[in-house]
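INTERNAL AUDIT FORM
Audit reference: QA-55
Scope: verify that the stored structure record matches its stored sequence.
Auditor: D.O.
Record contents follow.
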Amino acid sequence: MVKPKKHLGQHFLKDLKIASDIADALTGHGDYKHVLEVGPGTGVLTQYLLPKEYSLHAIEMDRESIAYLNQNFIQLTDNLIEGDFLKMDFNEITDGPLCVIGNFPYNISSQIFFKVLDNREQVPEVIGMLQKEVADRIAAPPGSKTYGILSVLVQAFYDVEYLFTVPPEVFNPPPKVNSAVIRCKRNAVAALDCDEKKFKLVVKTAFNQRRKTLRNALKSLTFATAPNEHLLTLRAERLSVADFVQITKCLAD
């Protein structure tokens, strides 16, 4: 059977060693028994996930890929979902914890992490290969030029590890940029010590004018009490998650 064509910004991995390394990045953090692969495509990563001790599920939108996987990975058939990861209900797989893993399509990689954040109590671990620029952003520490909205929102609930860089030539077709693999493990923060919607508002407002100090970048917001004076003299990229929580708690209702 002819392999399916590239779709949805997907570049098919052809390097088996890298596929094996991604599968081996699973740690079982959070004691999950189920693993969900996003966009398995032709099963290059799937073949290394199936022998693992976990129950493997996969979600794929492309019908050619679905047909290919059904023909070549019979053991996956009962757990192969045709659908959109961004719209799925994880409880269709299990009401317990599950790990999300995959070669994430470039054009929805950020949305995949937002989906994970919405389901963070069910997802103790995420391992993803994505565009290096986005991986750098998610893993960036405070003070880095790449530290931004996605960094803060993900790091509020996950500890992020940048595992390794992946060059373009190991894909078919090769992308024009490098890729990278990151691993995110759920941290001990059950809930932020502030209103989460307000927290997101503060973070987004601060980074939307990241060249300005917080005093000027947050002028559009109304505060009930004055935030820490020192924090207001800094730019958004200098603030930790805890700093943003502190500022959020000063907002008016």
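Auditor finding: record pair retrieved intact. The chain is about 30% helix and 20% strand.
Action required: none
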